[in-house]
Amino acid sequence: MKIGVICEGHTDRAVIRNILKGLKGVDSSQIVPLRPDYSIDETDLSQMTDDNFSNWTLVKAECENQVKIDRFLSMEGHDFVIIHIDADCSDEYDVPKPAKTADYSEKMRGAIITKINEWLGNNFQDQILYAVAIEEIEAWILTIYDKRDSTKSADPKTKLKLSLSKMGIKYDHTHAGFFEISEKFSKNKYFKKEKFRNYNKSLDDFCQEVEDKL
C-alpha cells in the first residue's frame, strides 16, 4: 500500500507520517509526497522548484487540477491520498467559521471537507483522507505537551512554542524538527496511554478516518 500526501508544508507531512506509523504501522517508504514533493531539509534552497513548496492555495490548485492525484491513484497499490489543510485561514478559501459552540470542531471540519470535495469535483472521495487541523497542525502536536483542549487555544503555535520552551525543547520549523516533536504520535502505546485524541477533536476525527479506511 502506498499513500500520497498533499499538504500545506513539509512540517505537516512530518506530523502525518508519525500519526500513520502510530495508528497503522505505516512505514515511511509507503508515504509518497505529492505536494510539496520532498523535505526542505533534504535539498539546497537554491535548487528548489515550484513542486517543493506548498500552502493552502497550492493544496487547492492540486485538488482542482487533479493530475497528480489521478496519476497516483491510477497505479496499482497506490490506494489513498491524504489532503491536509489548516482551518486557521478558512475565511480565505471561502469557508466561514461557525460559532464557537460545543460542536464547533465538527462543523468546521465538515465545512472544509465539503470545500475540498468541491475543489475535487466530488471525485475520489472513497480514496481521500482529510487531515483537517483545527486550527493549525501545531494544535495537534500540542496534545502531546498540554493536556487541555487545544481547539480552544487562540494561538496554538505560540502556545506550543511556550510549552516546548518550558521543557527545554527547541521549536524547529523544519520537517526534521516537527518529526521530532511529534514523535510520540508514532507509537501506538502513547496514543493509548496519553489519550492525545481526547484533546483535539479534529485530530481524533482524522485518526478515526485513518483507522476506518487503511
Characterise the protein shown here.
Helix content is 44%, strand content 12%. It has 9 helices and 4 strands. Residues 40-49 have low confidence and may be disordered. With 214 residues, it is of the alpha/beta class. The protein has helices at residues 10-24, 56-65, 67-73, 104-119, 137-145, 156-166, 175-181, 188-194, 201-213; strands spanning 2-6, 31-35, 78-86, 128-133. α5 runs parallel beside α6 (156-166). The longest helix has 16 residues, at 104-119. It has one domain. The protein is globular and about 45 Å long. The termini are close together.
**Percent range for β-strand residues:** 5-15%
Largest sheet, strands/sense/barrel: 4 strands, parallel
What's the total number of strands? 4
Category from helices, strands and their pairing? alpha/beta
Order of helices and strands: EHEHHEHEHHHHH
Alpha-carbon distance between the termini?
A: 9 Å
- Report the principal-axis shape: globular
Query: Number of DSSP helices?
Result: 9
Provide keyphrases for this structure.
214 residues; alpha/beta
Describe, in short, the structure shown.
The chain has 214 residues and is of the alpha/beta class.
Topology of helices and strands:
Layout lengths: L1 E5 L3 H15 L6 E5 L20 H10 L1 H7 L4 E9 L17 H16 L8 E6 L3 H9 L10 H11 L8 H7 L6 H7 L6 H13 L1
Parallel strand pairs: 1-2, 1-3, 3-4
